[in-house]
Design a protein that fits this description.
With about 500 residues, the chain is an all-alpha fold. The protein is built from 24 helices and no strands.
Length: about 500
């Protein structure tokens, strides 16, 4: 039996963060292989296929939503979840098929290319189920699984895309290889949680309450309509190439949220909430330099991917800010859902669930995403009618997405403060911000003075890394001497890993 106090928030968060940062390197390397090998049309098709995966995946929370809550509370639902994910993946394949069929008729994308994406679906479903199981009891296992996934797709892409020249089909196969690697690792590590018997009572509960985990997915489905709307209205995937390349740059910022990975299952386990304020300060500590670096070096990062996408620097800037607020809003939402206890009472009725945070929070998210899609669609139609360039369309898209995230984040922050009784440590946050701006500002000035923009990646990338790595190390060193909290964090990191 796993003790309910077994999850260590800082340790699991740091493991997740470090694994995430390594994954950023491997993922960017993977994207570089694609951007340097595929044509903009093929790269745009790749971005479209990976974006469309949201729609078949929308039904997966019927299982994953509950299994993490049950595993965190030491309930043996793991094997039942594995079995059920196979059935749901079949439904997911049907969903993807109909969407791909529609898009193939409404755009210039080859329908056969879109259909090839179906092969990913069973692996994504199984990997996610195992990830949720491991997040419920040992979050670091899920982090290592994600790390293996990102590392293994790099050599696969080199062989299939670069050397064998299989195009975006090779990229799909490379992803399948990486998912298999993660599935094998996580299955071995989760054997304690998936070796129990299949329990139909869990399946009955999930099917009875299927509407509750599906409800939040409405917001996800609405928000990702932007991909379909952009493709259909513009009639091209050229803009998706700029979009996908820019999204890739924001991966660094996205990893800051990993520090809070273990908070949700920890809140499910016990009533202790003293670590919330410290964890949020740690989130800002990592997020702020990642955001500033991504903004300052947006153009250079795009140039490294491919000089063709260099002009999309404003898209990167807007998406990076959106990612920052998105991390905060998702973190706040997970905190609020972690303290909700309605599902502990087996006698909870439909009305109880409707009045709980499990229903209220997704409702707020649906309102936000619906507003975003409405404004985005109207503006896009006007811009296309005015015959604006693809880059203008993508820049507008990123700006609207950024603006739509800010009000939701502020509102969720007020709810978290009300329910968890904590305050943000603004003095420390401002200190981190000033250090980041000053340090990376100086580095950028020096960088621009000495950098030579050479299209050859082997010549350009080392120059970029030569400034990036010392910049990050300089941030840690400066904050270490200026801030006692950072010194405590560094010491705790050393202690945890010992």
């Amino acid at each position: 039996m796993v003790k309910l106090s077994g999850i260590r928030v800082t340790y699991s968060g740091l493991i997740s963060l470090i694994a995430g940062l390594v994954s950023v390197i491997t993922s960017l390397s993977f994207i570089i292989i694609l951007t340097r090998t595929l044509t903009p049309t093929d790269f745009g098709t790749w971005g479209l296929i990976t974006s469309l995966m949201i729609y078949p995946f929308v039904i997966q929370p019927i299982i994953s939503y509950w299994v993490i809550r049950e595993i965190a509370r030491d309930k043996p639902s793991g094997k039942t979840a594995i079995m059920a994910s196979g059935g749901l993946s079949a439904v997911g394949i049907l969903i993807y098929f109909f969407i791909a069929y529609y898009l193939g008729n409404q755009s210039e994308v080859e329908q056969s290319d879109l259909f090839f994406g179906i092969s990913l679906i069973p692996f994504i479903f199984l990997n996610d189920t195992l990830t949720q199981i491991n997040l419920g009891w040992k979050p670091q296992i899920a982090s290592f699984g994600g790390l293996l996934l990102n590392i293994s797709k790099l050599p696969a892409a080199l062989i299939l895309v670069y050397f064998l020249d299989l195009g975006f089909s090779g990229a799909i196969i490379a992803l399948i290889v990486s998912y298999i690697t993660s599935i094998l690792y996580q299955s071995i590590k989760a054997r304690e949680k998936i070796s129990n018997k299949i329990n139909i009572s869990f399946l009955k509960k999930w099917l009875k309450l299927f509407w509750l985990p599906l409800y939040p997915e409405i917001a996800t489905s609405i928000s990702r309509l932007d991909i379909i709307i952009f493709t259909v209205v513009s009639g091209s995937v050229a803009g998706l190439a700029f979009w996908t390349a820019s999204i890739a740059i924001t991966m660094l910022t996205a990893q800051a949220g990993s520090i809070s990975t273990a908070v949700y299952p920890k809140l499910l386990q016990d009533e202790n909430k003293e670590y919330i304020q410290t964890n949020l300060t740690q989130l800002f500590y990592f997020a702020i330099p990642f955001v500033i670096f991504s903004i300052v070096f947006a153009r250079e990062a795009l140039f490294a991917l491919n000089p063709l996408y260099e002009s999309a620097s404003f898209v990167v800037i807007f998406l990076t800010v959106q990612m920052f607020f998105g991390i905060l809003s998702r973190t706040f939402q997970s905190f609020l859902m972690g303290i909700e206890k309605v599902d502990l009472n087996e006698k909870s009725t439909f009305n109880h669930y409707i009045n709980s945070k499990l229903f209220f929070l997704p409702t707020i998210r649906i309102i936000q995403t619906s507003t975003y899609i409405g404004i985005f669609s109207i503006g896009l139609l006007l811009l296309v009618k005015a015959q604006e360039s693809v880059l203008v369309l993508v820049t507008y898209w990123s700006f609207i997405w950024m603006i739509s995230e800010i009000p939701l984040t502020l509102y969720l922050y007020t709810l978290v403060r009300k329910n968890l009784k904590f305050s943000l440590e603004f003095t420390l946050i401002i200190k981190y911000l000033l250090v980041s701006i000053g340090l990376f500002g100086i580095i950028y000035v020096v960088f621009e003075k000495f950098i030579i923009y050479k299209p050859n990646l082997i010549e350009f990338l080392p120059q970029l890394l030569l400034f990036m790595i010392p910049g990050m190390l300089g941030y840690v060193i400066l904050t270490y001497f200026l801030d006692s909290r950072t010194r405590n964090l560094v010491h705790s990191i050393i202690k945890e890993f010992r």
